[in-house]
Amino acid sequence: MINVILATHGSLADALLTSSHMVYGELPHVFPIMLTENKGINSFADEFAAVLKQASKGADGVLVLCDLQSGTPWNIACHHAFDPQTQPPIAVLGGVNFPMLLLSDEIKDLQDVEHAAAQLLEQTQESLVQARLAEAAQSDDF
C-alpha cells in the first residue's frame, strides 16, 4: 500500500482535500501537512517527521505530493526521500493539482512507490489540457 502526504504552502492541502471529498469521498490514505506563516522551518520539519511516521505505518511506500518544487515542503520531503535510512521508501512529486490528488486513490494499492509516482505523473499529465471548440461536420439534411 502506498500512502500519500500532501505537503503545501498555506492551507492548499486542506482545501484540496476538502474539495476531493465532494468528488471522491474520503481519501484515508492521504495525510495533509501545511507550512504556515507562523510556523518556522524547524517546526514544519518536526511536524513533517511526525506525519511521515504516521503515514509509514503499514505502508510499502510513501508518496509526497508537494505544491512547489524547491520550496520548504519539497526540500524537507526530499531530505527524507534521499536518506538511505528512511523506511518505507519515499518518492516526491512537485506541482500537485486536483486531478493528481484524486488519481492517488488509483495507485494506493501498489507496492512500489517509484512505480506509483511514475504512474501518477503519467496519468496527471493527461489531465492538463486546453479547451478547444469542437468542429462539427455540417449535415446536408435540412
UniProtKB/TrEMBL annotation:
Domain of life: Bacteria
Domain PTS EIIA type-4: from-to ranges: 1-128
InterPro entries: Bacterial_PTS_sugar_comp (IPR051471), PTS_EIIA_man-typ (IPR004701), PTS_EIIA_man-typ_sf (IPR036662)
Keywords from the UniProt entry: Transferase
Pfam family, one: EIIA-man
PROSITE patterns, sorted: PTS_EIIA_TYPE_4
Stated name of the protein: PTS fructose transporter subunit IIA
